[in-house]
């Protein structure tokens, strides 16, 4: 049985690499969205993503392709392509074949992330990932990065954030209470605000009052701000991203940065604890995600979170509605506001 009803990957921005992995003139092979791609940085410093296979005889430009200024040259017979992907040189021919072109993907580099826009029909982006106001400031620690490869679909991972009951059942050791939660939808952005009691140092039973604001921008990017108060004050941000590798697997990454305390050791301790708790939560989620099916018509109780509202919001990122949806689940993309008590 096919586990998911989705007929394509969601449209939107997806992380493919970190900026610090890509110096000028470097060419990297990529495999995302079930396609072979290349990522490179031109002499001018621009990150670009092209289809990987040369239109001539099919060499993969990620293996031996080299940058000459802002053009990339194929290692096999030396054809060169400019930053729009057009062939601008065939070293041994007097005429360049008309259709000699590599597909260039929309790329944006923001907050140290290299993001690519995927659209099932190849349409250009209609929205952008917002810049983080707290990125790279001296008052905040540099991002710590964690990556997981998981056998699931992007929509499933983010559904977790609105599935409030699983927080207490599956992650109950981290949360003692979820006091209230509300969601706001505005176009491509879904924001949840949660007040909860969080065990930061679980074994010591130290409980902090936490306000968590999580904003999803599409199905590939989420930005979370956590502000905890109590015996100690702790503020951190967590960027979590999901990128489809193929129809079975995704790369799930998160980056954590903390607001520095005046005592550096305390900052380190709190951050290590936040990373440990985040990884512990993911270790619990992963076997569920990897083995569950997507129920198009789940049997929900009145205590469940706003799962169908999340799914209606998520539906705007597909060119076609999921194949298994029934007419009653035909999804509206109208912005809405909702509150769950
Ligand atoms: S395969 Fe690229 S130039 Fe021939
Ligand atoms: Fe979870």
* SS elements, strand count: 19
User: Which structural class should the secondary elements be placed in?
Assistant: alpha+beta
What's the shape?
globular
Low-pLDDT parts are: 324-341
How widely separated are the two ends?
36 Å
Order of helices and strands: EEEEEEEEEEEEHHEEEEEEHHE
Cross-sheet strand order for the largest sheet: 12-18-17-16-15-14-13-19
How would you sum up the major sheet? 8 strands, antiparallel
| Radius of gyration using CA atoms only | 22 Å
Ligand roster: FE2/S2 (inorganic) cluster, fe (ii) ion
Instruction: Name the helicity range.
Output: 10-25%
Mean pLDDT: 89
Beta fraction of the residues? 35-45%
**Tally of helical segments:** 4
Q: Describe it for me?
A:
By secondary structure, this protein is α+β, with helices and mostly antiparallel strands. Helix content is 15%, strand content 37%. It has helices at residues 154-162, 164-169, 264-291, 307-314, and strands at residues 12-18, 27-32, 35-41, 47-51, 66-68, 71-73, 80-81, 87-89, 104-105, 107-110, 113-118, 144-150, 175-186, 189-201, 206-217, 221-229, 234-244, 250-258, 337-340. The strands form four sheets. It has an eight-stranded antiparallel sheet with strand order 12-18-17-16-15-14-13-19. A four-stranded antiparallel sheet has the order 2-3-4-9, with no helix packed on it. The longest helix has 28 residues, at 264-291. It is globular.
């Amino acid at each position: 049985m096919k586990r998911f009803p989705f007929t394509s990957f969601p449209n939107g921005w997806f992380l493919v690499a970190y900026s610090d992995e890509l110096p000028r003139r470097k060419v990297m092979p990529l495999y995302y969205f079930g396609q072979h791609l290349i990522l490179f940085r031109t002499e001018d410093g621009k990150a670009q993503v092209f289809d990987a296979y040369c239109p001539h005889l099919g060499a993969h430009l990620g293996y031996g392709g080299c940058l000459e200024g802002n053009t990339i040259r194929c290692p096999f017979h030396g054809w060169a392509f400019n930053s729009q992907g057009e062939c601008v040189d065939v070293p041994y021919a007097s005429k360049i074949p008309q259709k000699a072109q590599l597909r260039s993907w929309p790329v944006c580099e923001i907050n140290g992330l290299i993001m690519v826009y995927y659209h099932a029909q190849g349409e250009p982006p209609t929205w952008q990932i917002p810049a983080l106001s707290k990125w790279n400031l001296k008052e905040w620690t540099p991002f710590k990065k964690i990556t997981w490869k998981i056998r699931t679909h992007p929509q499933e991972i983010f559904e977790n954030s609105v599935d409030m009951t699983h927080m207490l059942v599956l992650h109950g050791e981290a949360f003692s209470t979820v006091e209230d939660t509300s969601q706001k939808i505005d176009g491509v952005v879904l924001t949840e605000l949660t007040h909860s009691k969080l065990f930061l140092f679980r074994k010591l039973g130290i409980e902090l009052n936490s306000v968590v604001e999580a904003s999803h921008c599409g199905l590939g990017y989420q930005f979370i701000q956590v502000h905890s108060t109590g015996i100690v004050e702790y503020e951190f941000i967590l960027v979590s991203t999901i990128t489809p590798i193929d129809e079975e697997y995704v790369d799930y990454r998160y980056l954590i940065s903390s607001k520095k305390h005046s005592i550096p050791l305390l900052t380190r301790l709190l951050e290590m604890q936040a990373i440990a708790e985040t990884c512990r939560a993911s270790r619990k989620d992963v076997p569920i995600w990897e083995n569950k099916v997507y129920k198009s018509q789940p049997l929900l109780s009145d205590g469940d979170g706003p799962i169908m509202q999340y799914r209606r919001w998520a539906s705007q990122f597909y060119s076609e509605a999921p194949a298994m949806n029934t007419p009653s689940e035909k999804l509206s993309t109208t912005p809405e506001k909702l509150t769950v008590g």
